[in-house]
Amino acid sequence: MIRGILFAFGFCVLFQSCDFKGLTSSKKVDSLFLGIYLGMPAKEFYDHCWELNRQKLVVHGPTNQNVEYLMKDELDYPVYMRFYPYFYKDKIYQMPVTFTYDRWAPWARDYHANVLLEKLIPMLEKWYGPGFKSKVDPRKGKVYARIDGHRRMTLMVKDEQFVQMVITHIDMEKEFQKEVDELKARGE
Amino acid sequence: MKKSIVNKVMALALGLMFFAQSCTNLDEELYSDLAAENFFKSEAEYIAALGAAYSSFGGMGNHFGLWTMNELASDELVITTKGGDWYDGGVLIQLHEHNITIDNPIVGNTWNFLYGGVNTCNRLLYQFQQLPASDGRDATIAELRAIRALWYYWLLDSFGNVPVVTDFTDTEAPASKTRAEVYAFVEKELNETIPLLSTAKDGTTYGRINKWAALAVRCKLYLNAGVYTGTPQWQKAADDAQAIINSGKYSLESSYKSNFAVNNSGSNENIFVYPYDKVFAGGFNWPMMTLHYASQGVYNFTAQPWNGYSAVEEFYNTYVNATADTQFPEVYGGSDNPGTQGNVWKGTAIAPAQGTQDSRISNFVVGPQFNADGTRASDPGADSDDPDGAPLTFTPKINTIYPNGWRQGGARIGKYEYELGGTPNMSNDFVILRYADILLARAEALWQLNNGNAESLSLVNQIRSRAGVTPFAAPLTPEKLFAERGREMFAEMTRRQDLIRFGKFNKEWWAKNASDPKYKLFPIPKGARDVNPKLVQNPGYPN
To answer: Going residue by residue through chain B (543 aa), what tens digit of pLDDT does each one get?
Structure first.
């Protein structure tokens, strides 16, 4: 039991230790994208995605279980945005998202993730307002992050192909962490 | 059972050694950083690095990629449009009807998936090649080259002429190689690496390319050599299959179904798998993709399935019909499946019919469905013309591919065991290479060399006997070989190859007219050519 929770928790601690000073805010912000929000009940999420599919906005994505939204016009070239949330107590508490150019290829360096990352930040600041800050980790390269109320967002290059964004509900994460700590203490 | 658990843990450990760095250290590895301090220094780090190469296979068991592209372009599976569901811009039907456009996103995703796998191997190879020579380094390099050969084998098979990129640091857009040149590259890589790969078949090589897995890839390469290069290589295919047989490492399981069980890591038949896990390595979600919304209650799933993939009725009938369907004779003629007769589901499945009792019918979920509590599963949104209305019954018959396919139409994929109370992610290991395929490959190759070869018939009949159906009498015919491969290898991504090799791919089948031979290859995706004008489009597709 605890192994499963710890595994899920592995995602939620991503980037947590990165020291981004001055990012804290008490403002309540829960919106994500495409009408999805942190804390959204699982059933509502599935129904909503179903409706987005009917509207031909999203399809089932490849490579693991995810929903795929093709951003046709937001950037210089089409970009696939793929997402699938983690639920805690049947509500979205974390949303990992990947971005990749539709024209990515090993040899097409202009469309690699490090280039895409820099183009995504202005686009995301249009969605969420200005506020991303960056930090260069000696091993991991450039990491972008921001905190708005209880919503934490981080972005970095995952590999040559994908930019990884993780959006987390900080309060739910704390609650989840507490539960994990209690399970650990009980040795489960 | 104990062995299977050990295998699973070892294989998961391989993936998790790679993954764990991402989780516990708060962030993910930056693979494009080629600084020397990131190179691998110990045997344990070699193994961990290999995990990155194998994790690329995690896209095999889900929708919209290589598996989808191959299966939907064959006569095995279809995704009908069900009113407002599953149209997805027509890209799914395009594959079934062989009307594939250069901007089909499934084709584009597959291209990126395959080159993603190549790219990871090239990155790791570059890093390992900087290290001083050692047994561990050289063995790892050989394994990575063999993995990369598998990715190129799929590129060769799907797209034909593609660039062969082997240098991670090369930034120049590459030109396409001819299909024959790509074939030669894959063959050379396998020839050079097979002698260097581990011969072990145990927990240390589970979920990895050992010598036997690489031989299996080369066997399949040779089996299709006539398609790829115009020059068949039947003897070489037969020889590689024999080498695997002679190893004594693999054998047919007594139960076909056990190869696909939730805990299938103990199978002695599976040669190469991707070890999925519902917690640690998710992404294998066939029950979601194929079963009906109301199937949630049948299996007590934690989530509601999405009602997508169905089996094509005439293909399904090759299991239950002692005498072949008269529909679409160019594909199904000679597909007789003699055996003990008993109750099966046919057509609209209103009542049981008589048909062949083939144990491989476990490949399908078909007929009336019952909830875990024994009550009849029900579909409140059943189509007005559904044969039996609301009670959930998967009918082998499918009324139409578009626009209003029956919600309950079509036998569903049942190949892998679905866990009661399961999550959207399965723990069954996804079978990529299997011994039964190798036996049938040898049977076919020997038959091609001498159509009176007694061993060919014997090998096919080993497969039939395991399925509990009547062994074929001589003579073995291409129709029998083709149909037996179909029954045995359903949903294992071999049918498209078989249809092409046996000259049936462009014939008419259900909801598909006779098609242009150009569709034997998928188009080079438009997005790829937009950024690399050196890529040559496959013949017949618009430039």
So the answer is: 334 544 554 454 454 443 333 332 333 343 334 444 455 666 677 777 788 899 899 889 888 899 999 999 999 999 999 998 899 889 999 999 999 999 999 999 999 999 999 999 999 999 889 888 888 899 999 999 999 999 999 999 999 999 999 999 888 899 999 999 999 999 999 999 999 999 999 999 999 999 999 999 999 999 999 999 999 999 999 999 999 999 999 999 999 999 999 999 999 999 999 999 987 788 899 999 999 999 999 999 998 999 999 999 999 999 999 999 899 999 999 999 999 999 999 999 999 999 999 999 999 999 999 999 999 999 999 999 999 999 999 999 999 999 999 999 999 999 999 999 998 889 999 999 999 999 999 999 999 999 999 999 999 999 999 999 999 999 999 999 999 999 999 999 999 999 999 999 999 999 999 999 999 999 999 999 998 999 999 999 998
Q: How far is CA B149 from CA B186, B187, B218, B221, B370, in A?
A: 5, 8, 9, 10, 45
Contact B22/A14, CB-based, under 8 Å?
Answer: yes
Separation in Å, CA of A125 to nearest CA in chain B: 23
CA distance B168 to chain A (A): 8
pTM: 0.88
The pair of three-digit structure tokens given for residue A87, joined into one six-digit string: 């639920």
Measure CB to CB from residue A103 to each of B31, B65, B528 and give the nearest one: B528
Query: B interface mutation test: which of A18, A55, A104, A112 has the most B CBs within 10 A?
Result: A104
Query: Nearest CA of chain A to the CA of B172: how many Å?
Result: 6
| The residue to which tokens 């149209």 are assigned | B87
Q: Select the residue of A11, A62, A139 nearest B113 (Cβ to Cβ).
A: A62
A56, A66, A159, A168: best mutation site toward chain B, by most B Cβ within 10 Å? A159
Q: Which residue has the tokens 């998790």?
A: B16
CB contact under 8 A, A160 and B123: yes
Q: Which residues on B lie below 8 Å from A100 (Cβ)?
A: 112
Query: DSSP H helical segments within chain A, as ranges?
Result: 2-12, 42-54, 113-128, 170-185
Answer whether A40's CB lies under 8 Å from A94's CB: no
Per the CB < 8 Å rule, is B64 touching A61? yes
Cβ-defined contact of A54 to B119 (cutoff 8 Å): no
Domain boundaries, chain B: 2-249+258-274
Here the ipTM equals 0.73
CB B149 within 8 A of CB B190: yes
Residue B292 tokens read as 């009906």
Q: Please tell me the CATH code under which domain B2-249+258-274 is placed.
A: 1.25.40.390
Min Cα separation A110/chain B (Å): 9
Element (H, E) at A97: strand A91-101
Question: Is-contact B71 B53, C-beta < 8 A?
Answer: no
Cβ separation B30–A140 shorter than 8 A: yes
